[in-house]
Design goal:
The complex is a heterodimer.
Chain A (H helix, E strand, L loop, with lengths): L6 E12 L2 E12 L3 E6 L5 H8 L7 E6 L2 E2 L5 H6 L2 E4 L11 H6 L5 E2 L2 E2 L1 H15 L14 H14 L4 E5 L7 H16 L3 E6 L2 H7 L2 E6 L2 E7 L5 H9 L27 E9 L5 E10 L3 E6 L6 H9 L5 E6 L2 E2 L5 H6 L2 E4 L3 H5 L6 H4 L9 E2 L2 E2 L1 H14 L16 H14 L4 E5 L7 H16 L3 E5 L3 H7 L2 E6 L2 E7 L5 H8 L7
Parallel strand pairs in A: 3-10, 3-11, 6-9, 9-10, 15-22, 15-23, 18-21, 21-22
Antiparallel strand pairs in A: 1-2, 1-4, 4-5, 7-8, 11-12, 13-14, 13-16, 16-17, 19-20, 23-24
Chain B lengths: L16 H5 L5 H31 L4 H10 L5 H26 L7 H18 L6 H30 L3 H24 L18 H4 L11 H18 L1 H11 L1 H6 L4 H19 L1 H4 L14 H11 L4 H20 L7 H29 L5
Helix pairs in contact in B: 2-16, 3-15, 4-9, 4-12, 4-14, 4-15, 5-6, 5-7, 5-12, 5-14, 6-7, 6-12, 9-10, 9-15, 10-12, 14-15, 15-16
The chains are: A alpha/beta, B mainly alpha.
């Protein structure tokens, strides 16, 4: 352990409560100068809260904070920025209509008299870009950037303000594998220039790849601190969850998928020449054709924003389309969302907060969303039956806390997702659309959700899995398709799919199908 | 790979993660109640302070004015009857606006929907022969008023569902059109000469409260108040207990999730506005069946707009709307009572202050409540 005087960050016994919820209950963090430090833990473990305390966004209820050996307990965001502590949030805080340079200087604008000095700002961005390897066009509007570029702008903005200690909150959630590698390059170069990085994540391979030291949090407390060299993903996962977990990464699950002889079994889901138009009238899905057999998981890999969302929503009946979609040989063209559900379509949407749940509704109410017409007695909702249904699913899917009358908003992300999974798996379905089913969900819940998806496959259902997490697709899918620019550019059997074979397709460098 | 890791250094014993995330499940209900009740109370307090200042500028004692206001309203049976009468109309318009708000729609058209409902009821009253069985009269009148108001409400509903026309614009415009049309019809075809009202209905008049309790003598309060209470209970049941209500609130809270849940968002939109208009329309019966027994131009001017305030202050909950309707009715009647000391318009100002205070204090007070509790977002 490093000598205390050399510590960049030292948080001791941090307690932070939000009403009845104790987010931090004695959290500790020690980060040395010039290291890349991974802060890992399940959803709701209190990582983000602890980092927001460090960045001055929250004031701790008790505990002490030191930065560079100076007591900074309870400082403000302004103090934190002035002292060189900057946080890059999971959700970007950029103004889409402004240019890169304008966003970077926002809050500390360069001026020439009363007017903004755009040229100087762009020059400053260019210089910073060159120093750090964060390549972005300074004059481009942020709205026109890719997600990966927007993230670089966020980091540049923080560095421009003189950050020496950089906090990255789940930075890779939206990146493709090559972009992730670039990000690690940048992190290393910032470290080599004397910077300190705290990386919040729950992807264990990243932790192993890039960090030097690891702090594990569980239920608001720090439960372990270890050197990355000499630990294993299993050990980290065990510390996070408090028990052994099967990791998707090395599960090597092959099972015995009921892969049909070609033509022997008719497909459960058949999509032909599907074209879906986006809000601006441009096609965002350009002639997609594929089918999924009973007992098969088709995984769709690809960087987000390449038409996956629209593909899934068209199948679910949420978007108009041309081409044909058939479920168990029945054309869905004339069926609305509810009728598609009744016909045997289940759908785990990617957007938990906007689509999948009504956050102000109770757990019991959310567990019938989409099937409310089956839970009626006359005009009224059959409340006792709703509650029975809810209690059963809460037990079966281990949704916590086990109170059906609690608003969904009050549950952690992982438990919210369990509501969605429970609801969609409990109905009578033939085809399951699972879009980003484990996004923002902790290791324990990921394991659970993966097991449910395999279970559906083993029961002879057809599963369409869309995930930005390539490891997830590879761990679950029997066949892998890659979407790029609205097209399915590759469709491979699982055995032929590896990050290296898929990478070029995901970035558009190659196309096959 | 599965051997214990030597670098792992446990720091204390920690229970299962999820169990710690919510320690008091019951807290959320108390939280809801706090957020529902506190903001309107703060708004009232603010309005009272502004009222004090206003009264002082007129050189009067706030205590004396407020006492007079209460004496003239809740202090005697006549004043109380007037409060009940005014509150009855406001309950209907308040419920109408609240139903829209629950579906995520802002119905500014209660004013004309109320008038159209009263107008249609009065028309029926001109057609129904004298001596028509009283038991049959009421449902016919309710239906007529509901159709009148509902038709006016359905127009913005259909335009919104079909073409995406914004309901605020359409309902505002319809207020002008419908009120002008009703005035035209009344003054050219239906009015009793030298008046602005139609002939009296011949059957189905409802008794005033004074007929049952003589103390209410002279006040306009009548048994339509029973309909208002039934409407409150009915709307509560509809919103919070039925499937349609479940779907309507889902659309209001999260239209994308509602769509995902197989709910026809367009259908809910136009039905909600039509039903909203129908409820406002039934409010017209308070005047036509219970009080004057005819339609008169401007019989409830302002009651539709005040309904917006009632719905906002009542937090779009039927019970809250009942209380808010009593509050605004008290202020409105109280304005007459204090006229001797301060101008009646002072009470109008107070109403406006209550509305402004609610509009600003609801988000503000909520923010403060949340801050005190913390963000909860980890």
């Amino acid at each position: 352990m490093p000598d205390n005087s050399a510590l960049a960050i030292r948080l001791r016994d941090i307690v932070k409560s939000f009403g009845p919820v104790q987010a931090n209950r004695g959290a500790e963090l020690e980060v040395a100068h010039g290291e890349i430090h991974a802060l890992v833990g399940e959803n709701g473990a209190g990582k983000s809260t602890l980092m927001r305390v460090l960045a001055g966004m929250y004031s701790p209820d008790s505990g002490t904070m030191e930065v560079d050996g100076r007591d900074v307990t309870g400082w403000s965001t302004a103090d934190a920025i002035a002292a060189g502590v900057g946080m890059v949030h999971q959700h970007f805080m950029l103004v889409p209509t402004l240019t890169v340079a304008e966003n970077v200087m926002l809050g500390s604008e360069l001026t020439r008299g009363p007017v903004l000095d755009r040229a100087a700002a762009e020059e400053a961005v260019r210089k910073l870009s060159a120093e750090t390897g964060l390549a972005v066009p300074p004059a481009a509007r942020v709205a026109d950037l890719t997600v990966g570029q927007a993230q670089r702008v966020e980091i540049l903005k923080t560095l421009y303000r003189g950050a020496k200690i950089l906090i990255l909150d789940e930075p890779t959630a939206v990146l493709s594998p090559p972009e992730v590698r670039e990000l690690w390059q940048v992190c290393r170069s910032i470290r080599d220039a004397g910077g300190t990085i705290v990386l919040i994540t729950h992807k264990l391979d990243e932790v192993i790849d890039v960090s030097e030291t690891i702090t594990v949090m569980r239920a608001g407390k720090t439960v372990a601190r270890m050197a990355t060299a000499g630990t294993t993903p299993q050990a980290i996962a065990r510390a996070m969850v408090g028990r052994d977990v099967a990791l998707a990464l090395d599960a090597e699950y092959m099972g015995t998928p009921l892969l049909p002889e070609l033509g022997a079994v008719s497909a459960l889901l058949e999509v032909r020449d599907l074209v879906v138009h986006g809000a601006n009238g441009q096609p965002v899905v350009k002639s997609a054709t594929f089918s999924i057999a009973p007992g098969e998981i088709l995984g769709i890999a690809g960087v987000e924003g390449n038409g996956q969302t629209e593909l899934v929503e068209a199948i679910a009946g949420l978007r108009p389309y041309t081409g044909s979609i058939a479920l168990a040989s029945r054309d869905l063209a004339t069926l609305n969302v509810r009728a598609r559900g009744d016909a045997g379509l289940s759908h785990i949407p990617e957007d938990r907060h906007e689509r999948a749940l009504i956050l102000d509704y109770t757990v019991a109410e959310n567990l019938i969303l989409g099937q409310q017409h089956r839970f009626t007695r006359g005009a009224a909702l059959d409340t006792p039956r709703m509650l029975d249904h809810a209690r059963e699913l809460i037990t079966r899917y281990d949704i916590r806390p086990d109170n059906p009358s609690l608003a969904a908003r009050a549950l952690s992300g992982g438990n919210q997702q369990k509501i969605v999974v429970a609801r969609e798996m409990a109905r009578d379905f033939k085809v399951l659309l699972a879009a980003q089913p484990t996004r923002g969900v902790d290791v324990g819940a990921i394991e659970f959700i993966h097991a449910r998806l395999r279970e559906a496959r083993d029961q002879g259902k057809a599963v369409l899995l869309v995930s930005a997490d390539l490891a997830e697709v590879l761990a679950l899918a029997d066949r892998v398709a890659v979407m790029y620019g609205g097209r399915i550019v590759a469709l491979l059997p699982r055995s032929g799919a590896t990050p290296d074979t898929l990478g070029p397709y995901m970035t558009g460098a190659e196309r096959a199908a | 790979m599965s051997a214990p890791d030597p670098t792992l250094m446990p720091v204390g014993d920690v229970p299962a993660p999820a169990a710690a995330s919510i320690t008091r499940p019951g807290a959320s209900r108390r939280t809801q109640l706090e957020e529902a009740v506190l903001p309107p109370l703060v708004a009232l307090l603010l309005a009272a302070v502004v009222g004090d200042v206003l009264i002082l500028t007129f050189g009067q004692s706030p205590g004396a004015v407020y006492r007079l206001l209460l004496d003239g309203t809740w202090g005697n049976a006549y004043g109380f009857g007037q409060v009940l009468y005014k509150a009855t109309t406001l309950v209907f318009t308040g419920l109408a606006v609240a139903l829209g708000l629950r579906a995520g729609l802002f119905n500014i058209g209660a004013e004309s929907q109320l008038a159209a409902g009263g107008f249609c009821a009065a028309l029926i009253g001109l057609v129904l022969p004298a001596g028509f069985p009283a038991l049959l009269c009421l449902p016919v009148y309710i239906l007529a008023a509901a159709i009148g108001g509902g038709a006016v409400g359905a127009v913005p509903g259909v335009l919104k569902a079909r073409f995406g026309a914004h309901e605020v614009i359409v309902t505002i415009m319809l207020n002008f059109i419908v009120l002008a049309l009703l005035n035209y019809l009344t003054s050219t075809r239906l009015h009793v000469p030298d008046t602005l009202h139609t002939a009296e209905i011949r059957s189905g008049r409802l008794p005033r409260l004074a007929d049952l309790w003589p103390a209410f003598q002279g006040s306009a309060a009548n048994v339509v108040i029973v309909l208002a209470i039934l409407a409150m209970v009915g709307l509560w049941w509809f919103l919070f207990r039925t499937r349609r209500g479940f779907e309507l609130r889902a659309v209001g809270l999260q239209p994308h999730a509602a769509e995902y849940g197989g709910i026809d968002v367009g259908g809910v939109t136009w039905r909600a506005l039509a039903l909203s208009g129908a409820i406002a329309g039934i409010g017209g019966l308070n005047y036509v069946l219970g009080y004057k027994h005819y339609y008169e131009e401007g019989f409830a001017t302002g009651a539709g707009f005040l309904g917006i305030a009632v719905a906002l202050v009542g937090r779009s909950h039927p019970l809250g709307i009942g209380l808010a309707a009593l509050l605004f009715a008290t202020l409105s009647q109280g304005g007459l009572a204090v006229n001797a000391l301060v101008p009646k318009q002072m009470v109008d100002v107070l109403q406006a202050v209550v509305i402004l205070a609610v509009a600003t204090s609801v988000p503000e007070v909520r923010r403060l409540l949340r801050m005190r509790r913390g963000g909860g977002d980890r």
